[in-house]
Every structure is written in C-alpha cells, then in structure tokens.
Design a protein that fits this description.
This protein is α+β, with helices and mostly antiparallel strands. It has 13 helices and 28 strands. The protein folds into three domains: 1-175, Regulator of chromosome condensation 1/beta-lactamase-inhibitor protein II (Methylamine Dehydrogenase, Chain H, 7 Propeller), CATH 2.130.10; 183-339, Methylamine Dehydrogenase, Chain H; 356-522, 2-Layer Sandwich (Potassium Channel Kv1.1, Chain A), CATH 3.30.710.10. It is globular. Pfam families: BTB, RCC1.
C-alpha cells in the first residue's frame, strides 16, 4: 500500500482524513502543492497556490485542504502538471480540464490569462475521448482513445510538434509522421514530447540539445521523428525526466538516452547519450520505468517487485541502478527526488479501513467461516457457496443441485483451480504466463470471458523469446484471437531468436506451416 504520509505536504492532515484519500498528486517548485481525491470522489487542494494552480478561484495559499467543487464527482483518470505550474486532468468521460499558469497558452483556452478554476478544454477535442495527459514545463499533450495526440502551449523548441516554433494557443492534432498511426503511451520532458505506438515504435519531438530525443544528434525537432536506433525493439512504456528519457521494452529491458550529468542514464558514467543505450539490470525483468520532468531521477520496478533508483538522489549522483527497500516507484520520488513531487497520479489505499473487496480477499481459502471446500490434487481450498453462486453461473447451477460440503476436481491442477477461485474473490489473477495458459483453458471451459481476457493480458506481459511459441500455441488452441495476434507479432519481431528455441523445434506441424505462411505474408522473410 502507498503511504501518502511520505509527502510532507500532507503531514498536517489528521489520520481520519488520510484514510479517505484515494488519489493524490504532489507538485510545485518545492513540492508544496497537492491535489487529492477522496473515496467519495470529492477533490481537495492545499499548498502555496502559485499562479492559482490549486484551482480554488483565487491565489491564496492554504495550509488546510479546500474543496474544488467543479471537479467533485468527475472521476479523474489522468493528471499532469507543468513548472508554472499549470495542471491538466482527464476524466473518465474523456473530458480535459486545465487551470493555473497560462503565460504560454498551456491551458489550451486560446488566451495567456492564468486560470484560477478548472475549465473544460474543448477546442478540437469535442467528440474526442482523452485517456491520458502529459505536461512539460509549459506545454501539454493529450492522448485519445483512437490513439491520436493533441498538443498545445509553449513551443520554442518544437515540443508541440506543429512544424514551427510558434506557441500553440489551443489543442492541435500532432500529425506529420504520426498520421494514421495509433499512439498508446505519451510522456513529456521539460521541453520535449515522446510517443509510443501500438507497434512498439517510439517518436520524439522538441528540444534535443542533450540528445533526449534519441535521434543520434542534438538538433531540435519541430515534428515527430522515429527513433531509428530502436528499430526492431518493441517499446511498451516511455518516461521522461528533465532532459533524459527511459524506455521499457516488451521483454523487460530498459533503454536510456539524453542528459547524464547526474548519472540518470544508469550507464555508470556522466556522459550524455544521443542514442538509446541498454542499461545493465543483471537479467532481472523490468515491468515499470518512472521519471519526472522536474527532476533528474530515474526509477524502475522489477517483475518480483523490487525497486531500483539512479540519477540525482537527494543531491547525490548515482550512476548505476541502486536497489532500494521500497515496494513502489512512487516512494523513491517522495524520499529522494528534488523536488519531491509525484511522477504520476497516485492511487492510495487506506491502512485501517477494509473495503468489501479487501474483506473478501482476506477470507479466501480461510477455513474459519467457509461452508464448502474443493479437493484438488489432494489439497483443500476453502470457499463460500453464496459468493460462488453470485460470481459464477457455473457454480450457481452446480451448487443449486448439490448439498455436498466437499467437491473433488480432476480436470484441472491445484494451482490453476486455486487461482480461478481466488479470482472470484479478488477480480485479479497472480500467475506466471506459463501457468496462466491452464487458467485460460479453464476460463474457456467455464465460459468466463473476463477471466479469459485477464489471462491473455497476463500472458502478454510475461512473453519472452523462450516461451513465445508455447504461448502462441496455447492462444491458437483456446481460440484467443487477440492473444494469438499479439504472440504472432512478438514472434515475428524477434524471429531469429524465437526460431532458435526448443519450443520452435518441437512446434506442431500444422501450426508451424500456418506460422511460416502468415509470417511470409507479414514480410518477415524479406531482405
């Protein structure tokens, strides 16, 4: 669980108030401003309120939280901020609101007047659903459900991607090389912008004097440019620091480039890099990278939950990834970044209060009050009949026909069946990708469509060159079309390594024949 108390700006809030916080963001030149959302979807702000960045309708500082009435009930899904500061959010309905500093039209309302209250950003966004926003020092970019990117604000280095260096007063679609392409992830450095496509390609534009665009040169770019050095490498997430960039691949590797005066590239030296450089992580698979445009700190999280940090850490220059005791990337920014701001919108769980979901999770496989047990591979799993009837049509029919207190299961393994029952209690699955194949089989058998989707996502996150063919075979067998296409593309993108694995050598003849035919149509064998 995240502890919002790690951020000093929250130190004066009483425990009963802290327990109600569901989302939070700390920002400002000295991490002295904060906005948070409660479990009842009320939005509050506190801090110094520079340029009206708290959205309270005035520029008065406040040491006690004040409610932002216009945002209450809006369900914020993404939040970002600049150094003015200005603040931009996206709501669950796909709307964008902005407020605060506006000297460069970074609020997107066509003026340069500061915004004291949140206002809807509507120009060119009517009918669009925005899912993610990102801010540089004084510019803003937004990502829509269609994979389009819109940008506005300060443009002295081309960071808006309009082909000029004139400031952009209202949202404008970033087209050029991104035309007809689908963007899935965005990030901003101080004066640059980055975008990751659904095919794993990465594009950058804006300020580049430190090589933070990864293009092999130091020239600013006024339109998006593909990072050619990452050709054949599939990026799934990008994060930008003040003047450096981190990129996470689909295989869990991290590349870095840009400014390196604090060792923020993790290369062991302080030399800038204009092209992506692979960071040595000692073979541990990474699942998240984190950086913030206000600092020179870099953070990553491993598949096993370990958190590493490097770069500027409380004034020290840490040139290699350093293992911490933290369990969240957010904690590094709270304790070691300068300023100690949040790198994204936090989600915070209370420590003492258990929600219904948390209570159910705690009672799973607990014999104390269970009224049914499954016997699988000689092991017992304790559950509750009422919950199983509520959650699963299969069990509703089965348990209405029997009063048995013990049910034996033979067609599935203990590990898989326990994961299935735990899913009914928690809505989540926690299995390595190879075991998720068995759960995919079960979800197909029981016609649990949501579980099937979760299994597919788990398999996607855990795919490697070694297991790709095994996972592809499973996707074909269980008619998981989306997963099949994902595994196929991964195999094609890593064709040389995949074809050298034992799994490829043992591949079913018909599947191999279809794979080669499809890969050929895909252009995999062209010189």
């Amino acid at each position: 669980m995240l502890d919002v108390g790690k951020w000093p700006v929250f130190a004066l809030l009483p425990p009963e108030e802290l327990r109600l916080i569901r989302q939070a963001c700390v920002f400002g030149s000295a991490a002295n401003e904060a906005i948070y959302v409660t479990v009842s979807d009320e939005v509050f702000a506190l801090g110094t309120n520079c340029s009206g960045c708290l959205g309270l309708g005035d520029t008065q500082s406040t040491i006690e939280p004040r409610r932002i009435d216009i945002l209450c009930g809006k369900k914020i899904v993404s939040l970002s901020y600049g150094t003015g500061p200005h603040v931009v959010i996206a709501t669950a309905d796909g709307e964008v609101y902005s407020w605060g500093h506006n000297g460069y039209s970074q609020l997107g309302n066509g003026t340069t007047n500061h915004g004291l209250t949140p206002a809807l950003v509507s120009t060119n966004l009517i009918g669009k659903r925005v899912t993610e926003v990102a801010c540089g020092s004084h510019h803003t970019i937004a990502l829509t459900t269609e994979g389009e990117v819109y940008a506005w604000g300060y443009n002295n280095s081309g960071q808006v991607g309009s082909g000029s260096t004139a400031n952009q007063p209202t949202p404008r679609r970033v087209s050029s090389c991104l035309q007809n392409k689908v963007v899935v992830n965005i990030a901003c450095g101080q004066l640059c912008s980055m975008a990751v496509l659904d095919n794993g390609e990465t594009y950058g534009w804006g300020y580049n004097c430190n090589g933070q665009l990864g293009l092999g040169n130091n020239g600013n770019q006024q339109t998006p440019c593909r990072i050619a050095a990452l050709q054949g490498i599939n990026i799934v997430q990008v994060a930008c620091g003040y003047a450096h960039t981190l990129a996470l691949t689909d295989e869990g590797f991290i590349y870095s480039w840009g400014a390196n005066s604090y060792g923020q590239l993790g290369t062991g030296n302080k030399s800038n890099q204009a092209v992506p450089t692979l960071i040595n992580m000692e073979k541990e698979r990474m699942v998240e990278v984190a950086a913030c445009h206000t600092s020179h700190t870099s953070v990553a999280k491993t598949q096993s939950g370990q958190v590493l940090m490097w770069g500027q850490c409380r004034g020290q220059a840490v040139a290699y990834p350093h293992l911490t005791h933290f369990t969240s990337t957010d904690d590094v920014f709270a304790c070691f970044a300068t300023p100690a701001v949040t790198w994204h919108l936090l989600s915070v769980d209370g420590d003492d209060y258990l929600t219904v979901a948390q209570s159910l999770k705690r009672e799973f496989d607990s014999p104390e009050i269970s009224d049914l047990k499954f016997l699988v591979d000689g092991k017992c799993i304790h559950v509750h009949k009422a919950l199983l009837k509520i959650r699963c049509e299969h069990f509703r029919a089965l348990l209405n026909e029997t009063d048995e207190e013990t049910i034996e299961i033979h067609q599935f393994s203990y590990l898989v069946y326990r994961a299935f029952l735990e899913y009914l209690y928690t809505d989540t699955i926690n299995l390595p990708p190879e075991d998720a194949i068995g759960l995919l089989d079960l979800s197909t058998y029981y016609r649990e469509s949501r579980l099937k989707r979760l299994c597919q996502e788990t398999i996607k996150r855990g795919i490697t060159e070694e297991n790709a063919i095994t996972l592809l075979s499973a996707a074909v067998k269980y008619e998981a079309r989306d997963l099949e296409e994902f595994c196929f593309k991964f195999c094609v993108n890593h064709l040389t390594a995949v074809t050298q694995t034992q799994a490829f050598a043992d591949m079913d003849h018909d599947l191999l024949k279809n794979f080669i035919s499809k890969a050929s149509r895909y252009g995999a064998f062209k010189n």
